[in-house]
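Quick note —
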Amino acid sequence: MVDVHLVALPEPQRSTLRILRGRPLGQLRYGEECIKYRMPALMPEGKGVAAYDGFANHCSYFPMSGSVLDQVSGIPSWAVAAKGTLQFPIDKPLSAALIRKLVKARLAEISDVQNGIRFDFLEDGAIKAGGRCARGNSTVRGAGIAATAA
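Predicted structure written out below.
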């Protein structure tokens, strides 16, 4: 589905987003790639980590959180950061280093769940630990222990 979505985009958006796609995917080897909110997204354990798409006058990276961009330094001056999106020129992909920072910040945010199912991720999207968490007290267990909702 992601390939179909990208093929439908005009150049140079298509090429720019293919480069961007390779950067987070190279890091998130264990994340599921799918279409979410009508755009390509990366979802390890069903948790939204990154999405991206091309538009008429720009491309966008969506960290799937309104607070991730505030946590990351090194956003280039030619990119426009808003609460939930990072817009960049259609012919200028974001750097691999910036993508790593954005993904790492989002994975850390997901791991900071205080109530519900909590996952601690390694940088490549693999589960380090998972389990239930209530009011900050967790029953998080090592990798290989599947967490299930009540």
